[in-house]
Amino acid sequence: MDYVTIKLLHQSAVALSAFGFAVRGIASLNGAQWTESRLAKRLPHVVDTVLLVTAVTLAAMLHLNPAHAPWLMAKILGLLLYIGLGMVALRPRFEWKTRAAAWALALVVLLWIASVAVLKNPWGFIALMRQAST
User: Fold this and answer.
1) Cβ atoms within 10 Å of 50's Cβ, excluding its own
2) CB neighbours of residue 79 within 10 Å
3) Spatial contact of 51 and 79, defined as CB atoms under 8 Å apart
């Protein structure tokens, strides 16, 4: 596959993953039973696998090394934070307020990761906010 196709597949997987997390989070916070189903728990892993494979493929195609591309390292670290927050948000064993806060923060982190990707700046939208304040 060519670069443009893989990038489109990656961006589509990002959108699908983000939408799925947002919907599953809202439903889970409202006590919807379907969020505990096998499909609801497994489908995100399929989407996220496509997301990860396309990300690694794009990085390899562009010869990007996170050690030499600070914005890429920022995305990876942001992804780890997003995963941790998402785990708290979607696990019923945590209190509702904790889960709601983790869900909201995970969405903010997700937006920040996307802004890092678009701006190729490790600060993402924070850099834009800093520029606007000066």
Assistant:
1) 17
2) 17
3) no
Whole-angstrom Cα distance, residue 122 to residue 19? 24
Q: How many domains does the chain have?
A: 1
Structural contact between residues 29 and 103, judged by C-beta atoms closer than 8 angstroms = yes
Here the tokens at position 83 are 């995963």
Token readout for 32 is 């919807």
- Count other C-beta atoms under 10 Å from residue 77's C-beta: 14
- Number of helices (H), then strands (E), belonging to the chain: the values are 5, 0
Q: How far apart are the first and last CA of the chain?
A: 44
Domain holding 41, by residue range, is: 3-133
pLDDT digits (tens, 9 = 90+) for 16-52: 999 999 999 999 999 999 999 999 999 999 999 999 9
CA dihedral 56, 121, 24, 27 (to 10 degrees): 180
What's the pLDDT tens digit per position in 77-88? 999 999 999 999
Please give the model's pTM, rounded to 2 decimal places: 0.90
